Amino acid sequence: MKVSLITGASGGIGEAIAHKFAERKHNLLLVARNADKLGTLCKQMTEKYGINAQFIAADLAKSGTAEKVFAETKRRGLEVEMLINNAGIGSGGEFSELALEPEMEMLQLNISSLVALTHMFLGEMKKRNNGTIINVASMASFIPIPYMATYSASKVFVRHFTQALTQECKPYKVHVMLLCPGLTKTNFNHAAGMDGEVGRRLNAEYSSSTPLQTPEQVAEELLTALDKRKHYIVSGKMNRMASRLSALFPNAFLAKSFAKSYRKK
User: Fold this and answer.
1) Is 134 helix (H, G, I), strand (E, B) or coil?
2) What's the pTM value of the predicted model, to 2 decimals?
3) I need a surface site. Which of 26, 97, 146, 230 has the fewest CB within 10 A?
4) CB 76 within 8 A of CB 5
């Protein structure tokens, strides 16, 4: 059975993408930690859209999990024709004061598991001369952000890795696309420990004065870009403008400005 595999699918952007793909009659394989939430989602989408929706409850922040997910797709006889590496987490605060283990787990989730899943499923796509890989980075990938140092650096990796892979995959007819959302109304801030003072200092609060998108808006822009066979999209008009403006200034200047703003607040 052909499926679209979506990581981080139990909420936020991943869940919104899953619903959009289900509307288009894609069979789904959802991956996240929360088995109860995934089970409920799969049941809802199977009944509502008449598709086959399956899940694997797995923690991609742990080493070796990506390999287990790949092995499980083989055991179930699933052909992953589309891989959406959406799972990710952030952190905020002074780097030296943050606990080391969560920072390392973030790198495992945002980088290592993404690379592992891409490597394993890309090999099969190349053999078939067909497939799609979508990696989700962030607006943070355009700027070195003090007090989000590890997270922003991890998203720079995703952006550069995906854009390089785009060119490697063209001879094999495997379509690779990078999605860079900005601040989106999800559970991201709470999971990252940024829903209080840290979020305010980073201008990352979910407030009426802060420009942000809904997960559904991000997912809709993703589908529009995919239909047009684009390789790269920054979602949100204001975010696209900000990404262009950031290219006009040296990284050192941007980092200094962000640090001064954070400390001032």
Assistant:
1) strand
2) 0.91
3) 97
4) no
Q: Please give the distance of CA 232 from its chain centroid, rounded to a whole number.
A: 13
Query: Hey, what are 73's tokens?
Result: 């797709």
**d(Cα 68, Cα 53) in Å, to the nearest integer?**
19
CA distance 129 to 191: 38
Q: With DSSP H G I counted as helix, E B as strand and the rest as coil, what are the percentages for the chain, rounded to 5?
A: 55, 15, 30
CA distance 223 to 70: 25
How confident is the prediction along the chain (265 residues), in pLDDT tens digits per residue? 999 999 999 999 999 999 999 999 999 999 999 999 999 999 999 999 999 999 999 999 999 999 999 999 999 999 999 999 999 999 999 999 999 999 999 999 999 999 999 999 999 999 999 999 999 999 999 999 999 999 999 999 999 999 999 999 999 999 999 999 998 877 666 665 656 665 555 565 555 545 689 999 999 999 999 999 999 999 999 999 999 999 999 999 999 998 998 888 6
Cβ–Cβ under 8 Å, residues 41 and 9: yes
What is the Cα–Cα distance from 40 to 23, expressed in whole angstroms? 17
Domains, the chain, ordered by start: 2-264 (3.40.50.720)
> What is 53-75 written as a DSSP string?
EEEEE--TTSTTHHHHHHHHHHH
Asked if residues 94 and 46 have their Cβ atoms less than 8 Å apart, the reply is no
Cα R_g (the chain), whole angstroms: 18
